[in-house]
C-alpha cells in the first residue's frame, strides 16, 4: 500500500507518530547520521518517502543540482563519473549510504 494513501485517513498527530516509528530504522542504518540528536532524527523521519529504482535507472547525474537525499535501504548502487563522454565506475555503494 502507498504510504501517502495510508496517511490520508490519519490525524496529523498520528501521521507524525507513525512516520517517526517507521523512519527511525532507516535513519539509524545511515552511518553518516550516527551521533545526531533524537529530535533531529525525528524531524528527518517525518520527511522520508520510499522510492524504488530499476537496475539501469540513474538516481543522480554528475553536474546536475540535487534536490533529494537518498538512503539506500536495500540493494546496491554504482557511483559513476563522466569523463570525456565515458562513464567510469568510482565505487559501489550498499545499504545505509
Brief sketch in words of this structure:
32% of the residues lie in helices and 15% in strands.
Offer a few descriptive terms.
two-stranded antiparallel ribbon; alpha+beta; 97 residues
Describe it.
- By secondary structure, the protein is α+β, with helices and mostly antiparallel strands.
- The protein folds into 2 domains: 1-50, no CATH class; 54-97, no CATH class.
- 32% of the residues lie in helices and 15% in strands.
- It is built from 3 helices and 2 strands.
- It has helices at residues 3-8, 12-28, 38-45; strands at residues 77-83, 86-93.
- Strands 1-2 form a two-stranded antiparallel ribbon.
- Strand 1 and strand 2 (86-93) form a beta hairpin.
- Helix 2 packs across helix 3 (38-45).
- The protein is globular and about 50 Å long.
- It starts with a helix and ends with a strand.
- The relative contact order is 0.14.
Amino acid at each position: 500500500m502507498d504510504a501517502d494513501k495510508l496517511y490520508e485517513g490519519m490525524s496529523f498527530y498520528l501521521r507524525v507518530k507513525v512516520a517517526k516509528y517507521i523512519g527511525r530504522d532507516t535513519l539509524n542504518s545511515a552511518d553518516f547520521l550516527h551521533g545526531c540528536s533524537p529530535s533531529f532524527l525525528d524531524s528527518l523521519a517525518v520527511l522520508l518517502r520510499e522510492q524504488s529504482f530499476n537496475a539501469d535507472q540513474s538516481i543522480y547525474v554528475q553536474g546536475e543540482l540535487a534536490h533529494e537525499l537518498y538512503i539506500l535501504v536495500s540493494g546496491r548502487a554504482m557511483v559513476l563519473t563522466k569523463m570525456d563522454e565515458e562513464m567510469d565506475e568510482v565505487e559501489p555503494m550498499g545499504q545505509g549510504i
